[in-house]
Amino acid sequence: MRDRTAHLLGTSANGEEGEVPMAERRARHTAHVLARLGIEEVFRAGHRRPQVDGEPQTSGEQYRARAIRQALEQLGPLYVKIGQILSTRPDFVPDHIREELALLTDQATVRPFATFVPTLEAELGAGWRESFSSFDAGRPLGAASLAQVYNATLRDGTPCAVKIQRPGSHGSVLGDMAVLRRVTRVIQRLAPRFSEAIDTRAMLDVVFRAMGDELDFTREAVNMKAGRKAAKEFKTIKVPKVLVATPRVLIQTLADGQAAHRLKDNELSRKQRKKIAHEFVAFMLKGFFVDRTFHADPHSGNVLISPDGKAHVIDWGMVGRIDRSMSAGMLGTMIGMAYNDGPALAQAWIQMGSTTPWSDVGGFTADIARFVPHVTNASLAELNFGVALTAVLAFSTKRGIQTTPNVSILGKAVANMEGTVRHIHADLKLSDSIRDVLQDILLDLARDLGSPEQLAQYGLHTLRTLTQGPGQGIRVLNDVADRQLTVHNHTRFHDTRYSKAAAALALVALGRRRRQR
Predict the structure, then answer these.
(1) Residues with Cβ < 8 Å from 358, sequence gap 6 or more?
(2) DSSP secondary-structure letter at 112?
(3) Is 360 left (phi over 0), alpha (psi -120 to 50) or beta?
(4) How many CB atoms lie within 10 A of CB 225?
(5) β-pairing verdict for 319-321 and 293-295
(6) Closest CA to 403 of 95, 176, 85
(7) What is the rounded CA–CA span in Å between residue 224 and residue 235?
(8) Pairwise CA distance, residues 240 & 297, whole Å
């Protein structure tokens, strides 16, 4: 198995790259699509037809952006996901292209059901039909480039959805990954300064890891079970139950409802819509800041709204995972935006990334201080909060601050979440939602800080500091004696405030644990 995967990735079994058929086929396919895109651009430039009276004017930029989107859709699911992420990167993607990339959808031509029968037989056995009392093979519920989904009923009467991987899609995605890794190496060689602020290779690795679960349905099933557990504390958020999972077939309970963007104005009351929107935001924020595992593709097509006022979150193949430091940095960023605190936002953002030799921290902080007041109290109907977050990204890149690659997947998830909520209840203010759930998030974090594992980490850190302290003290004294000691006085008020808050929360948690004992 390892040899086969390495073969498809363009690597040998020991991880070294080599020339392999799948990677080369995907490279040729990519080159063919891009060459056709270039030829069409040249042809269009030389044959611009006159505008007809009354016809809406379409600029060359709009034609070009649309052609890029269509090319990415032709190239397949990996390029679609990357295009969706690029739509949240105003720091190096022009606005007219970002707007078009935001329309990217992973739709594919429906394949005949007979194409999928060999997969069902290989994964479930030759008698797979005996497991179902009915199976609607005539029309799939959905068709994407990685899989098709069918409506069925189990023998015990349970309605279910059967997701079947498209033949050949696994190898195609792995081949595309190999091609894109080569491209990033070229970018790093040709544009070293650009790569200092934007690590394209690391950014792609984050996407590859997030998409990895889409290639193995048993891993997607694990994600669904975790999501289902996280959703239990919310009355309106539901996640389908996994019934059967193999690497290429996933059977789950049928999610009732329609995609959020198809919800009509006269469906559900305002109170129901507000409740769903609020709980969906809280569910996602808990994933970002408490569980640090979250649905990375929560667009409106993956959130089905049922007539009884429930939101069913489906398609758990793309999941983001971040560490404690990244989660804390993003929490500080969103708190700064919600509470109109530009300097705090700037400091939290910088801590998520790193500075470069040409960073302008003061300029970045000033940019954010001017920007934040315009977004704090806007509703989703008035402002795209996700785009506001990516504007911070543009400021940081402009000022030479390298952003952690995880921001790309987080930014996509936030933008998708916001877009979905806009279809459900556009009057919701995301900043209000953040403030509403902040107390619960901080209490969860306090309990986490007081856990035995965290206390052990604090103890080890203290011990390390004590053992290294004398040597560090001697070095400081030597620097003073040699007049080489430099004191940097940056504005650290917000760090101190948040550190004290975190310390207070930790003490509260410890006090509670002692009382419980």
Answers:
(1) 400
(2) P
(3) beta
(4) 15
(5) antiparallel
(6) 85
(7) 17
(8) 16
The beta-carbon contacts of 368-374 under 8 Å, at least 24 apart in sequence, are 368/336, 368/342, 368/343, 368/392, 368/395, 369/342, 369/343, 370/342, 371/342, 371/395, 372/336, 372/337, 372/340, 372/341, 372/342, 372/345, 373/340, 373/342
Strands 311-313 and 303-305, how do they pair?
A: antiparallel
Tens of pLDDT, residue by residue over 392-429, are 888 888 888 887 878 878 888 988 898 899 899 988 87
Which tens digits make up the pLDDT trace of 141-163?
988 878 999 999 999 999 999 99
Backbone phi, psi, residue 272, to 5°? -65, -45
Provide, for the chain, the percentages of residues in helix, strand and coil under a 3-state DSSP scheme, each rounded to the nearest 5: 60, 10, 30
Radius of gyration of the chain measured on its C-alpha atoms: 25
User: Which element (helix H / strand E) includes 160?
Assistant: strand 159-165
What whole-number distance in Å separates Cα of residue 108 and Cα of residue 143? Answer: 6
Residue 292: alpha-carbon gap to chain centroid: 12
The structure's pTM equals 0.74
Tokens standing for residue 277? 């929107």
Query: What count of other Cβ atoms lies within 10 Å of the Cβ of residue 279?
Result: 20
Helices and strands of the chain, counted as H and E runs: 19, 14
